[in-house]
Structure formats: C-alpha cells, structure tokens
Amino acid sequence: LGLPSWVALRRGARVVATDLRDAERLCALATAAALNCPEGGEAQVRPHCWGEDCSDLTSKYGGFDLILLCDCLYITDLHDALLSSIKACLAPGGIVLAAFAQHHEHNEEVVFNFFALAEQRGLTVEPLEEKQMPVRAINMPDK
Questions:
Q1: Is 77 exposed, middle or buried (0-12, 13-18, 19+ CB in 10 A)?
Q2: Model pTM?
Q3: Is residue 61 a contact partner of residue 14, using CB atoms and an 8 Å limit?
Q4: Cα distance between residue 20 and residue 46, in whole Å
Q5: Which residues contact residue 34 at a Cβ distance below 8 angstroms, ignoring those fewer than 6 apart?
Q6: How far apart are CA 54 and CA 48, in angstroms?
Q7: pLDDT tens per residue across span 24-61
Q8: Cβ distance 105 to 143 under 8 Å?
Q9: Are 113 and 83 in contact (CB under 8 A)?
Q10: What is the 3-state secondary structure (H, E, C) of the chain?
Q11: What angle separates helix 79-89 from helix 108-120, to the nearest 10 degrees?
Q12: Which region, left, alpha or beta, applies to residue 2 given φ > 0 means left and ψ of -120 to 50 means alpha?
C-alpha cells in the first residue's frame, strides 16, 4: 500500500500519503510509511475522501509539486471529486502523474474521460508512453 509514496520518500521527497477514512487502511499505510522512512525523512499519513477540504493535507508543506495517482481512475463516479482534490492540493507549476490499470468491469472510454475532465478544469494533459500490461489472473480475460 502506498508504494509510489515510499519510493518518493526514499528518494528524498517529503510525502503526504492519503487513503479513505478506514482504520485498517490508514494503519497499513502508516506502518508502510514507518518501515520506509529513511533517517531524516518526512512522511505523513492522512485520511482524505476526494472532493473534501484539503487544508489538512496542505497545512504543513503548502501545495504539492508532485501528485502521484496510482490505480484510482477506475472509480469513474468520483473523477470530479478527485479533480477537485487535485486542484486544491497542486502547487502552481506542479505536476500530476497518473498510473492505472484498466479494470475489466469499466468502460475504457469513461476511464480515459478523466483526462478530458482534467483539461476542462484547466490542467494541461500530456500523454506519456502507454502500455497495457498482460493480465496475470486466470479469472480475467486478456485485453
């Protein structure tokens, strides 16, 4: 849980990692933060539901230079709320990187619409190299 955050932390970034207000998820995230925090590193774990006020997330460091989105675009009903949180947390000139998998129960067009919504919200979208990894579970069809 939170792997991209811990890689950034180990590379010297100050990290604020978020997840839903679920005690088990937050405990797992905090444990991973403690296990991966180098001496002198700074990591915070905060509960956050997309679309909520972000002042608790930005209170210590201000807006973020980098926001990492990891496998959260499949929750298509929450794209607007996610973009609200991004806009509230992103520092001027900051960037957002999104890594995600296509979950087979969702329409790809709806998932990729996240990027059109981001542009409508004033964010610049630049596609990077895209690669659909092969399915490794026997109960999922190949893409």
A1: exposed
A2: 0.87
A3: yes
A4: 9
A5: none
A6: 8
A7: 999 999 999 999 999 999 999 999 999 999 999 999 99
A8: no
A9: no
A10: CCHHHHHHHHCCCCEEEEECCCHHHHHHHHHHHHHHCCCCCCEEEEECCCCCCCHHHHCCCCCEEEEEEECCCCCHHHHHHHHHHHHHHEEEEEEEEEECCCCCCCCHHHHHHHHHHHHHCCCCCCCCCCCCCCCCCCCCCCC
A11: 40
A12: left
Question: Structure tokens of 81?
Answer: 């709320």
CA 17 to mean position of chain CA atoms: 9
Alpha-carbon gap, residue 16 to 130, rounded angstroms: 27
Question: Which tokens in the block code for residue 130?
Answer: 């895209």
